[in-house]
Amino acid sequence: MQRRSLLQLIAALGASSAVPAAARAAAPTRKPIVLYCDLAVDPAREQEMLDAYHQHFLPAAQSFRGRGFIDLKMLKLRTVIQGRPAPPAGVNYRFQLTYESEEQRQVWIRSDVHQRNWPLIERTVLNRDYLVLLTDAV
């Protein structure tokens, strides 16, 4: 009797997990966008930038979950292993933002919360003419 119940449970679990997969297969597959900013953060203001990122900007960005926000990372450049050209002198951080679409990212950057919090990061960079790359996930 226990074996029959266990087999029924396994069958029910298999059937229920197939429904979300079928629903996902029927949904349109739109690939996200990823934005990169290569930043030359002033070494004397590095901790200020990190505090602003972790305490203000990241929580503000995460408040847009469900409105297109997928992920945000602040990456510190360690070393160039291969290839040229190397990042320009002084570039020590790469900001990486992932959104469901460019249209949703535009809503985010025009929001009051972004307008209040991005300057906390930007004021710590040595050059405000930093490289910004918009990419499509493939």
Model description:
With 138 residues, the protein is α+β, with helices and mostly antiparallel strands. It is built from 4 helices and 4 strands. It has helices at residues 2-26, 46-62, 102-110, 112-122, and strands at residues 33-39, 69-76, 93-99, 131-136. The chain has a 4-stranded antiparallel beta sheet, with helices on one face. Helix 2 (46-62) runs antiparallel to helix 4. The longest helix has 25 residues, at 2-26. The protein is globular and about 55 Å long. It starts with a helix and ends with a strand. Residues 15-19 have low confidence and may be disordered.
Topology pattern, helix = H, strand = E: HEHEEHHE
Instruction: Give me the Rg, rounded.
Output: 21 Å
Give average pLDDT, whole number: 87
Q: Which sequence of strands runs across the widest sheet?
A: 2-3-1-4
Largest sheet: 4 strands, antiparallel
Helix content: 40-55%
Q: What's the helix count? A: 4
Q: How would the global form be characterised?
A: globular
Strand content: 15-25%
The separation of the N and C termini measures 50 Å
SS class: alpha+beta
Number of strands: 4
| Regions with little confidence, pLDDT below 50 for 5+ residues | 15-19
